[in-house]
Design a protein that fits this description.
56% of the residues lie in helices and 2% in strands. It is mainly α. It has 2 domains: 127 residues; 90 residues, no CATH class. The chain has a two-stranded antiparallel sheet with strand order 1-2. The protein is elongated, with a radius of gyration of 24 Å. It starts with 7 loop residues before the first helix and ends in a 5-residue tail after the last helix.
C-alpha cells in the first residue's frame, strides 16, 4: 500500500499517527483496570463505563491504524520492521474491536480473554514502533558497552592508536544519525554504522567525497537551515554541535579515512 503523491490533508492525517496511537494505548489499560479492578474488589464492573471505554478504545485504535497505513504508504520505507509493525498494529486494532463487541455480551469470560490479549499485543506493537523511531538498540543501549574492541599490541607492545574515524567520527554518527540509518532501518538506503555503508552511500549516491566537505551530503545537509526540506537530521531529532560539524569537516578534508 503506497501513496505516490497523497493529498496534503491525507498526508497530515498519516503524520498524526504518533499522536493518535497514544489514545488506545492509554484507554486499553484503563479499561483493563476498570474491569479487573472490580473483580478484585468483588464488585460488578460498571457496565456503562466499560462499554464507553471499550468503544472509544476501538474507534481510536482504528483511527491510529488507518493513519499508520497512510504514513507508511507515504514513506514507502520497505524495512522488515515496518512490515512487522503494520501487522502488529492491525492485529491490535482488530482485538480492540473484538473487545468492544464482546463488551455487550452477558458472559464476561470471552470479553476478559480478548481484553488480556489486546493488552498483551500492545507490547510488541509499541516495541516495533520504537525500533523504527529510535533504532533497534535504543531500549537496551545504556546497558551495553559501546567502546570499540581493543586491538592487539604493536611491535613494541603498545596498543595502536585509534583512528580519527573510530575516536571521533563514529561516536558523532552514532549520536545523531544511526537511529535512522542502521541495519534495521536504512532510510534512503543509507547505512551509517559501518565504513562499508558510508563508502557505498545511499539511494542518491555518495554521502562523503574525500577531500571535499562542501560536496559531501553527510556534512552539507547538516549545514542547511533547520526548516529546509533537505536538512538532516530531521528537526525533531538530535542535532550535531558546532564542534561535531567542525570535526566532520576536518575528517573529510583529511581524506575521510577509516
Amino acid at each position: 500500500m503506497t501513496f505516490a503523491d497523497p493529498s496534503p490533508w491525507l498526508a497530515v492525517f498519516g503524520r498524526a499517527h504518533p499522536v493518535l496511537l497514544h489514545a488506545p494505548l492509554g484507554l486499553l489499560p484503563g479499561l483493563a483496570l476498570l474491569e479487573f479492578g472490580a473483580v478484585l474488589l468483588r464488585r460488578p464492573p460498571p457496565r456503562g463505563a466499560v462499554l464507553a471505554l471499550a468503544w472509544l478504545c476501538a474507534l481510536t485504535a482504528a483511527a491510529a491504524a488507518a493513519s499508520g497505513l497512510v504514513w507508511a504508504g507515504e514513506s514507502n520505507d520497505g524495512s522488515p520492521t515496518l512490515g512487522q509493525h503494520k501487522i502488529a498494529g492491525l492485529v491490535l486494532a482488530g482485538l480492540c474491536l473484538v473487545v468492544a463487541v464482546l463488551a455487550f455480551a452477558s458472559s464476561r469470560g470471552p470479553f476478559r480473554i480478548a481484553l488480556v490479549l489486546a493488552c498483551a499485543a500492545m507490547f510488541p506493537t509499541g516495541h516495533l514502533g520504537g525500533e523504527m523511531t529510535h533504532g533497534s538498540d535504543f531500549l537496551f543501549a545504556p546497558l551495553r558497552d559501546k567502546k570499540p574492541p581493543a586491538k592487539g599490541p604493536g611491535p613494541d607492545g603498545t596498543p595502536p592508536p585509534a583512528s580519527e574515524y573510530t575516536r571521533t567520527i563514529a561516536p558523532i554518527l552514532d549520536r545523531v544519525c544511526t537511529s535512522c540509518h542502521n541495519p534495521d532501518k536504512q532510510k534512503g538506503e543509507l547505512l551509517l554504522t559501518t565504513p562499508e555503508g558510508i563508502r557505498k552511500g545511499g539511494e542518491n549516491g555518495a554521502v562523503v567525497v574525500a577531500g571535499k566537505p562542501d560536496e559531501s551530503p553527510l556534512l552539507a545537509r547538516c549545514l542547511l537551515p533547520l526548516d529546509h526540506d533537505d536538512h538532516m537530521p530531521p528537526a525533531e531529532k538530535k542535532q550535531p554541535t558546532a564542534d561535531e560539524l567542525a570535526a566532520l569537516r576536518a575528517w573529510i578534508e583529511a581524506g575521510a579515512g577509516f
